[in-house]
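Researcher: Here's the sequence for the chain we discussed earlier.
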Amino acid sequence: MNEEQARALFVLAGIPVTKLHKLENKYWPDHPDYADVRRRSPWWLATTPFGPIEIGWRKRVISISWEDTPARQVVTDDDVTKDDTGVHAYSYVKALEYLTALRGALPRATAGEPDGR
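Model: Thanks. This is the structure I predict for it:
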């Protein structure tokens, strides 16, 4: 997932991002055999008013984690790996669906914060 794709997921889900940090891929081992796939598939740490949200491709799923936010909610009934601080999505469409559901579990932004009213 490139930076534009990561940003687009958050924009479409309605989760304001103040900064997007590129991370090493956390799935593939740090070994020369995996150097190319790790380089082509970084993970991202989105800084939001609610805390950081981490997102990135594993082998066949997009891992989304919000363990350092106040949200504690399972965001789907789909038969995927999930708990109240993370979920695996099998596509960008599902990642958007889960991020949108997560947005409903996050506290409303206050006036003066991004997306505040």
